[in-house]
Design a protein that fits this description.
The protein is 31% helix and 25% strand. The protein has two helices and four strands.
Length: 55
């Protein structure tokens, strides 16, 4: 699973930036290609969910 990181936060399910790293609240993508495509559109970058949950 992948998430999109922007500035000092992540994109949540509502499409807003949040600093909350809870996987149930984040917008999740099943493949890296999907997350990178979305991230390119909004100016963020894709990050693997395992990396996020360690922080």
């Amino acid at each position: 699973m992948y998430v999109v990181k922007v500035f000092h936060g992540y994109i949540n399910k509502d499409g807003h930036r949040t600093r909350d790293k809870t996987p149930t609240n984040l917008l999740l993508f099943s493949t890296r290609e999907e997350s990178e495509h979305f991230a390119d559109k909004i100016g963020g970058h894709a990050k693997k969910l395992k990396e996020v949950s360690k922080n």
